[in-house]
Design goal:
The complex is a heterodimer of chains A (about 280) and B (about 350). By secondary structure, chain A is an alpha/beta fold. Chain A has ten helices and seven strands. A six-stranded parallel beta sheet of chain B has the order 3-4-2-1-5-6, sandwiched between helices. In chain B, helix 3 runs parallel beside helix 4. The chains are: A alpha/beta (about 280), B alpha/beta (about 350). Chain A: Keywords: Endoplasmic reticulum, Magnesium, Membrane, Transferase, Transmembrane, Transmembrane helix.
Chain lengths: ~280, ~350
């Protein structure tokens, strides 16, 4: 008898939480051109009792950049925004944990990263969708680069790193940002391949098993066109997991969650960067 | 038992627990118990006090896990990076470990009664020898208990663990037990310190930091990650329920992702076996048989042989690991008798 009661209460509880999530995402998508953050806070205050306020979203605890982020003065402002932060990540991983990716929004994120001065950007989803649609994503990024950075797009160039074609595709002479598309194959399967490589060296007596240390395995994994480890993983979507994203490389990465990449605004992207700038790494000490 | 606090849940805690248990519950929870030093600063007490309180909180949390029927817990007690701390702090932590492991050995009856299996994961050779011996005794004494499992990561980092797993595989190749192509995700899973545990369903990190800090990087690829801002010594039953609720909200999506990955893994292994079988046939001069039935049989034969090699290797590896603890234990028995 009691088991039935408990189950009923549990179902009610989860129904309420799902309802809250649905309403919030509906607000976000349908009234994006309003000052929805104000709405969201109001709605959240009504629907979410304090005990459920556990999401570590940047907009909950950091002040937002004052309004006026119009496209025309965007690129000047973006560069100075980047400089105004205490620290900027060297490599940002964009982890899209949502079912249907929107290429334009992802392209915007990549271009914003470049514009604020981030040197390496990787784009990941756990179904390998981006890997399969690599050229579509690249085209979208170039298009958004033109649109958002306008005349200045010639100053910013993008190098696309791809496993399938080793030669990087460069658009202009100077190289300011590197973009890599990743999939689950770059996670554990890559570690397995590196392990097999080392075992082959051992089999041919070119190495001993005891020769291996963390640095050696790290260089085997990095290869020749290696990027630095991500310092920041921006996770989009409501799934609370890294979903197989570069397990070896994210050992010290800050993981900042954003509710969705659909219609993502620059202000939300930048508040995630501010959150990152405020993180203190003690490195074990 | 000093490691598991005595006591029962209050009525309202029990009610909440029963409601939560109506949904999917994590079977294995991992904790990064962060915030002891900040807690000590907050209360204006010595750092060492912060760590001691942290241990008490662990004991309480283990009690909650038992109440919620969570049978396996892994905790990040001491990282290899933590050796970089000030000498007196490291010595203090080692002393705490000495006390707690010694206490554990005095409570063997209780441990047996509750069926608690203690495992210590990490590069134990980095620790003082007397602590290694205490750990060996605790691990051997509780080896066959199987009601609940506590994995303490001590002198541990995930990268060291993964590197060690690859080294073990390479050792297997050196010994002629396996071939390089036998190395797979499954094999590396079994070579990790956590080979006897399933992957954690839920990873909780306290004190507001939002990174993994080199903890179970391989094992938590599809775990629910919950970052809570409360400092570890202040962790409450309600914080824990919050985390479990988060796990329940993510359960379906994570299961789907995990299944997708498992399917991909099976296909990759099959493909690898096909390639290896084809190569073998080539080498034996039979070329590529036109009959798909023969090809299929060749692949099946190769798979069976590979699995046999891997199984023998893992048996030898387990014996090697057991010997490490029994040798340490022999050392302590000998010195006790002397």
């Amino acid at each position: 008898m009691m088991a039935v009661v408990y189950e009923f209460v549990w179902r009610m509880l989860h129904a309420l939480l799902h309802l809250q999530r649905t309403i919030l995402s509906w607000f976000r998508i349908s009234i994006w051109n309003w000052n929805w953050r104000l709405w969201r806070r109001a709605v959240a205050a009504v629907l979410v009792p304090a005990v459920f306020g556990f999401q570590n979203h940047p907009h909950n605890n950091k002040k937002l950049v004052p309004g006026g982020g119009k496209k025309s003065c965007g690129r000047v402002r973006w560069k100075s925004d980047g400089k105004s932060l205490e620290k900027l990540p060297l490599h940002v991983g964009l982890l899209i944990a949502e079912e249907e990716p929107r290429y334009t929004d992802i392209a915007n994120l990549v271009v914003w990263c470049m514009a604020v001065g981030i040197s390496y950007v990787s784009v990941y989803d756990n179904q390998g969708i981006f890997r399969r649609n690599n050229s579509r994503l690249m085209d979208e990024i170039l298009k958004q680069q033109q649109e958002l950075l306008g005349l200045d797009s010639l100053k910013y160039s993008v190098e696309f790193l791809n496993k399938s074609n080793e030669k990087p595709e460069q658009q202009v002479l100077s190289c300011q940002a590197t973009v890599k598309v990743l999939s689950p194959d770059d996670g554990k399967p890559s570690i397995v391949k590196a392990a097999q490589k080392f075992c082959q060296l051992v089999e041919h007596q070119q190495q001993r098993s005891t020769d291996l240390d963390v640095n050696m395995l790290d260089s085997l994994l990095r290869g020749t066109k290696g990027m630095p480890d991500p310092d920041l993983v921006m996770k989009f979507g409501t799934v609370d997991s890294t979903l197989g994203f570069l397990p070896w490389h994210i050992r010290l990465a800050e993981i900042i969650s954003l509710p969705s990449h659909i219609n993502i605004k620059y202000e939300d992207f930048f508040s995630a960067l501010k959150c990152y700038a405020g993180c203190e790494q003690r490195l074990g000490k | 038992m000093s490691w598991i606090r005595k006591g029962e849940l209050t009525l309202i805690e029990r009610l909440s627990a029963n409601i939560l248990k109506a949904g999917p519950m994590p079977k294995h929870v991992a904790f990064i118990m962060d915030g002891n030093r900040r807690y000590a600063r907050k209360l204006h007490v010595e750092r060492q006090q912060g760590h001691t309180q942290g241990f008490d909180k662990l004991a309480e949390t283990l009690r909650w896990c038992l109440n919620l029927e969570i049978r396996e817990v892994t905790v990040y007690a001491f990282s290899i990076e933590n050796f970089k701390r000030a000498k007196d702090e490291v010595d203090g932590l080692m002393e705490l470990a000495r006390q707690k492991f010694s206490r554990l050995l005095d409570e063997q009856e209780d441990l047996e009664k509750h069926g608690v299996c203690i495992r210590v994961l990490g590069d134990l050779t980095l620790l003082p020898l007397d602590i290694q011996k205490l750990i060996a005794q605790a691990v051997l004494a509780t080896k066959n208990h199987n009601k609940c499992f506590l994995n303490v990561c001590f002198a541990y980092t995930s990268r060291h663990e993964i590197t060690n797993a690859v080294k073990e595989a390479a050792w297997g190749v050196e010994q002629g037990l396996i071939k390089p192509s036998d190395v797979s995700e499954f094999l590396l899973d079994e070579c990790l310190y956590t080979s006897n545990s399933p992957d954690p369903d839920l990873l909780i990190r306290t004190s507001g930091e939002v990174r993994l800090s080199d903890f179970l990087l391989w094992q938590t690829t599809y775990s629910c990650l919950v970052f809570q801002s409360i400092l570890w010594p202040e962790y409450s039953f309600w914080n824990f329920c919050e985390a479990i609720l988060q796990y329940q909200l993510n359960h379906h999506a994570l299961q789907k992702a995990r299944d997708l990955h498992a399917e991909a893994r099976v296909l990759q292994q099959l493909e690898a076996d096909r390639c290896c079988a084809a190569e073998l046939l080539q080498q034996t001069g039979l070329g590529k048989p036109l009959d798909p039935q023969l090809r299929q049989e060749a692949v099946q034969k190769y798979t069976a042989e590979r699995e046999g090699r891997v199984h023998s290797f893992l048996t030898v590896l387990q014996e090697k690991r057991d010997r490490f603890f029994t040798d340490l234990n022999k050392g302590s028995i000998a010195s006790a008798k002397a």
